[in-house]
Write a structure and sequence with these properties.
The complex is a heterodimer of chains A (about 325) and B (about 190).
Chain A (H helix, E strand, L loop, with lengths): L9 H29 L7 H18 L1 H8 L2 E3 L6 H14 L5 E5 L6 E5 L5 E6 H6 L2 H16 L2 H36 L8 H39 L2 H17 L2 H4 L20 H4 L5 H16 L13
Parallel strand pairs in A: 2-4
Antiparallel strand pairs in A: 1-2, 3-4
Chain B lengths: L2 H5 L16 H11 L3 E10 L5 H15 L7 E4 L5 E6 L5 H17 L6 E9 L5 E7 L4 E5 L14 H11 L22
Antiparallel strand pairs in B: 1-3, 1-4, 2-3, 4-5, 5-6
Chain lengths: ~325, ~190
């Protein structure tokens, strides 16, 4: 049996599994509470429909994620003839990781960033901006691409879309309840004047706002964990954590230096970027889609230590000794 | 990788499959009898050098082990993609010795936990007309593919002789596991040993 230097980060896995479980429980609880509240107002049949529509909407987003994301970034898929070096690096990484090669796209923007998208490993695309190509060395670029390929291998688009479905359902219902307030509110008064209970639309509004808020923080937390996982796997793939660390340091500094106004249009894309484009203040640590640079560098240092230490009985057993 | 590993974000580094390399000498005989190509006696292993002391030590031990005999010393170089190549030379008639050299690299790296670093190995062939052919072994897939750069050695042209590559694939299909996906046949321009 071949020995391996890869050590599972059990703590990270446990925290992430817990968050995913909480998000699933949140979705179920949301539907159950609303159905209970709606049962005696005659809206009971509506709730599963909203749940299904939300899942359908999430499915559509996931299924078309590669096309949507590339279009939103105005990225262009490039052939090996157009970008031989980029394709060469990705060819080698995919051969090392034994995974299918994604499509390669370039976005013509000066913002240094890279992202991966697509519903499965066979329908995925890795996109880099011209800004990141200009700023990083070949070795750093390889670290970034390994990080993005890890997102593909971990099926992060699927995971994050599923995780967001509770939030999507809650968001849709919040909208629906606002309409119900105007339209159902007057109606109810004339029909159910005897019923002293709180009107259903109010319960729906409050519950969905709470679910939306909780789901918002949980998905952001999950997103940060997924980034750490991708950093880790990417570093183990290239065996050069230091290259990824130096790339992160470079682009984090530069992203923050670019005026925010230019970055507004890419806000929706943030979840799959290698570093987030917005520099938020205040609630930053709770609402950020990406872990802080310090956290990421600390983890990469740990990977570096795992790669650098001798195996059991390792050193000193070489030939001629 | 299982779905659970994917969902928990734990893609483990893939271990190298090093056993199929030994089917190379038989394939070389097939190549010699059915076409004009003979081994050049030069082969190389391509791997990713990890950062840190452990890999440096493993690499030193490995080179020392390979140089500790009468045949020519191995040559080490780094390509533009940051991968390290170890080049071994043996007599063109003694392909098993060359394969043993390549296999020494595999097992030494694997013993130190660097099996996932192995990318590919390459064994050079040539024919009377000077055409070059490399049989490339992909460690992670456990398959071979032919790589035939067109034009003279050391030339700057980057063209592949696809016709020759497909011919060789058809000749060797019975002897070697040939990589079925053509998009995995990545070019190795300027690889040592070609």
């Amino acid at each position: 049996m071949a020995s391996t230097r890869f050590i599972n980060d059990r703590g990270l896995t446990a925290r992430m599994t817990l968050v995913m479980f909480l998000l699933g429980a949140l979705f179920v609880a949301f539907v159950v509470v609303l159905m209970g509240a709606a049962a005696n107002t005659g809206y009971g049949g509506l709730i599963p429909v909203i749940g299904l529509v939300a899942i359908g909407f999430a499915w559509f987003q996931w299924y078309n994620s590669d096309k949507l994301a590339l279009k939103a970034m105005r990225a262009r898929v490039v052939t090996p003839e157009e970008a031989p070096e980029l394709h060469g690096v990705i060819d080698r990484l995919c051969a090392l990781a034994d995974m299918p090669k994604p499509r390669v796209a370039i976005a013509y923007t000066d913002m240094p960033n890279a992202f991966a998208t697509g519903r499965s490993a066979d329908h995925s695309a890795v996109c880099v901006t011209t800004g990141i190509l200009d700023r990083l060395t070949a070795e750093e670029m390889e670290g970034v691409l390994a990080h993005e390929l890890s997102h593909v291998a971990h099926r992060d688009v699927l995971v994050m879309t599923l995780a967001a479905s509770a939030g999507i359902a809650a968001g849709m219902l919040t909208r629906g309840a606002q309409y119900g307030m105007y339209f159902g509110g007057g109606n109810r008064r004339s029909n159910n004047n005897n019923n002293n209970g709180i009107p259903f639309w109010l319960i729906a509004l409050v519950v969905s706002l709470v679910v939306y808020a909780v789901s918002f923080f949980l998905t952001r937390l999950l997103s940060r964990y997924r980034e750490l996982c991708a950093d880790r796997s990417g570093a183990f793939l290239t065996q050069k954590p230091a290259a990824l660390a130096s790339a992160l340091t470079k682009i984090s500094g530069e992203v923050a230096a670019i005026p925010t106004k230019d970055l507004r249009e890419v806000q929706s894309m943030n979840a799959f970027f290698i570093t987030p484009a917005i520099s938020g203040m205040g609630m930053r640590t709770l609402t950020s889609t990406h872990p802080s640079l310090e956290q990421r560098l600390e983890q990469l240092a740990k990977v570096s230590a795992e790669l650098g230490k001798p195996m059991d009985g390792g050193f000193g057993l070489g030939p001629g000794r | 990788m299982g779905l659970w590993d994917a969902l928990t974000g734990r893609s483990k580094p893939v271990q190298a499959n090093i056993d199929s390399l030994f089917s190379l000498p038989a394939a070389a005989i097939t190549l010699q009898t059915t076409s004009d190509f003979t081994p050049t006696g030069v082969g190389s292993v391509c791997f990713r050098a990890a950062e840190g002391a452990a890999f440096a030590q493993a690499n030193r031990d490995l080179v020392e082990l390979l140089d500790n005999d009468d045949d020519p010393d191995v040559e080490q170089s780094t390509d533009s993609f940051g991968f390290t190549w170890l080049l071994a030379r043996q007599s063109p008639d003694d392909l098993p010795a060359l394969v043993t050299d390549l296999h020494t690299v595999n097992t030494s790296l694997e013993a130190q936990g660097f099996g996932p670093s192995l990318l590919c190995s390459l064994v050079g062939f040539t024919d009377q007309g000077g055409r070059r052919l490399g049989l490339v072994y992909l460690y992670k897939q456990g398959t071979f593919y032919p790589f035939a750069p067109a034009g003279p050695a050391g030339g700057s042209g980057r063209q592949r002789d696809n016709l020759l590559e497909l011919q060789v694939r058809d000749l060797l299909q019975g002897d070697l596991p040939v990589e079925p996906k053509l998009d995995r046949w990545m070019p190795l321009w300027g690889a040592p040993g070609l």
